[in-house]
Amino acid sequence: MAKIGDIELGKFPLLLAPMEDVSDPPFRVLCKEQGADVVYTEFISSEGLIRDAAKSIKKLDIYESERPVGIQIFGANLESMLKTVEIVERSKPDFIDINFGCPVKKVVSKGAGAGILKDIDLMVKLTEAMVKHTHLPITVKTRLGWDTDSIRIVEVAERLQDVGCAAIAIHGRTRAQMYKGEADWTLISDVKNNQRMHISVFGNGDVDTPERAIEMRDKYGLDGAMIGRASIGNPWFFKQIKHFMETGEYLPEITIADRVEMAKRHLQMEIDWKESEIVGVMETRRHYTNYFKGIPHFKEYRLKMVTSDVAQDVFDVLDEVQVKFS
After folding, report:
1. Do the Cβ atoms of 95 and 7 come closer than 8 Å?
2. CA distances for 103 relative to 46, 69, 100, 140, 273, angstroms
């Protein structure tokens, strides 16, 4: 049974990864409806929260229907991170996740995200201080190491567990790899199979088919799969994995009508959440390619969707798509 603190998640939960500009409340709700067991917010800057930056504050929004949900924060300054915990608690998440894995230069250059992999002692110190500062479970998302010469993930996971980390999600690449090459699940398995480990260990990276999720469970023995890029514009992916796990068969292909309905719901939910038509339209654009992936001769319609700033125009194009391709 996988757990985060006292939260029981089932035998092999599927987790929606925290993704900047993707895993906002509307998308999290859609993924939850389609079988995601746990969802995470976009990563939130501790310094942004302290400065009361509007964009960071907005990311704290949580819908009741998406629980259990973790708010993910990043930073490298102890005092700022502890102040952030107090701010985050007001949103009443089920747990708080620390991002020790983001490889983006603007984050890493401040010693945050994957940048902290250069200073494991600070990584452990920050985690311990946050555990002591809140009643909520503290979890960690990280990478294998800074580069192939500095991989100490078994030791790192042990030390994080020893200071109270409630669960750990590991992306199977180093920071140096960014998102290139293949994720190495063997090293994540080494963490899980360490006899000293008793917290849940979730794998992340390259889970893009139901078979890969099963491989993560059966071959590598991990406690759950965290899914990122494969879910963008495809919230059905969680349901597809679960169906395959239960039956050994694929779900029927998602119909055009279902794709159109999901895209419309997503767009309307974004507009409602952002309280802005143009922002809602722009926030949904990155999903359209995947919502309609594999449909031949679709380029003309996709182009209309991603260039219009008017919601009604996008809804009209979606109606056209349903008539044209059904």
Report:
1. yes
2. 17, 23, 9, 15, 28
Q: Give the model's pLDDT for residue 289.
A: 87
Q: Is 102 a catalytic site residue?
A: yes
Question: Which residue's structure tokens are 């078979």?
Answer: 211
Other CB atoms closer than 10 Å to residue 318's CB: what's the count?
Answer: 21
Task: Give every CB contact of residue 55 below 8 A, 6+ residues apart in sequence.
Answer: 48
Encoding tokens for residue 269?
A: 């939910």
| Per annotation, catalytic residue among 4, 102, 123, 317 | 102
Round the average pLDDT of the chain to a whole number and report it: 95
**Planar angle of CA 191, 17, 197, nearest 5 degrees:** 20
Q: DSSP for 12-53?
A: S-EEEPP-TTTSSHHHHHHHHHTT-SEEEPPPEEHHHHHTT-
Query: How far is the CA of 244 from the CAs of 214, 247, 293, in angstroms?
Result: 9, 5, 20
CATH of domain 2-247: 3.20.20.70
In what helix (H) or strand (E) does residue 268 lie, and over which residues does it extend?
helix 256-274
Q: Tell me what pLDDT residue 133 has.
A: 97
pTM for the whole structure: 0.96
- Confidence (pLDDT) at 114: 87
How far is 313 from 109, CA to CA, in rounded Å? 41
The two beta strands, 224-227 and 14-16, are parallel
Most distant pair of Cα atoms in the chain: their distance:
59
The closest of 154, 127, 125 to 138, measured between CA atoms, is 127
- Ranges of the chain with pLDDT below 70: none
CA–CA distance, 33 with 91 (Å, rounded to integer)? 21
Q: CA 210, 213, 217, 220 torsion: positive or negative?
A: positive
**Per-domain boundaries in the chain:** 2-247, 256-325
Amino acid identity, residue 19? M
What pLDDT was estimated at residue 229?
Answer: 95
Give the pLDDT confidence score for residue 326 in this predicted structure. 83
Tell me whether residue 56 is exposed, middle or buried, using C-beta atoms within 10 angstroms of its C-beta: 0 to 12, 13 to 18, 19 or more: buried
